[in-house]
């Protein structure tokens, strides 16, 4: 794939994910936006094999989130479950630092008083 076409595809995926995050509860949106930004920055210099895997997994994430957002239309956010469980097979392919990152994300997204105490503006 030509470099400019690849960059366009990456930016399109990145922007689409950030748009989908607008439909998440505000604290999960902040957490998700920061994670996505960090991951896309971190992988700017990845090898072609890593990029292929990176893009495949983020495309799956986008598709899953898009489906969940569409299914949640009209429902209260508190009753909607976003995300998906990871199989042991997928987890076994992770590197140690990725397992650590995943664990930190899990802790942050499930604790009752999250690091991001963000409130929506009342209009």
TrEMBL record:
The keyword Cell membrane does not apply. It is found in: Mitochondrion matrix. Keywords: Chaperone, Mitochondrion, Transit peptide. It holds the Pfam family Complex1_LYR_2. One of its GO terms (cellular component) is mitochondrial intermembrane space. GO terms for biological process: mitochondrial respiratory chain complex II assembly; succinate metabolic process. Its main location: mitochondrion. Interacts with the iron-sulfur protein subunit within the SDH catalytic dimer. Plays an essential role in the assembly of succinate dehydrogenase (SDH), an enzyme complex (also referred to as respiratory complex II) that is a component of both the tricarboxylic acid (TCA) cycle and the mitochondrial electron transport chain, and which couples the oxidation of succinate to fumarate with the reduction of ubiquinone (coenzyme Q) to ubiquinol. Promotes maturation of the iron-sulfur protein subunit of the SDH catalytic dimer, protecting it from the deleterious effects of oxidants. May act together with SDHAF1. Belongs to the complex I LYR family. SDHAF3 subfamily. This is Succinate dehydrogenase assembly factor 3. It comes from Perca fluviatilis (European perch).
């Amino acid at each position: 794939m030509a470099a400019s076409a690849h960059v366009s595809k990456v930016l399109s995926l990145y922007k689409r994910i950030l748009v989908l995050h607008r439909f998440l509860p505000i604290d999960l949106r902040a957490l998700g936006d920061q994670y996505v930004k960090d991951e896309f920055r971190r992988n700017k210099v990845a090898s072609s094999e890593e990029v292929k895997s990176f893009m495949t997994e983020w495309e799956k994430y986008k598709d899953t989130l898009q489906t969940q957002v569409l299914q949640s239309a009209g429902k209260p956010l508190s009753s909607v479950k976003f995300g998906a469980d990871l199989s042991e097979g997928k987890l076994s392919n992770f590197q140690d630092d990725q397992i650590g990152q995943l664990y930190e994300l899990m802790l942050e997204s499930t604790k009752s008083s999250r690091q991001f105490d963000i409130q929506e503006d009342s209009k």
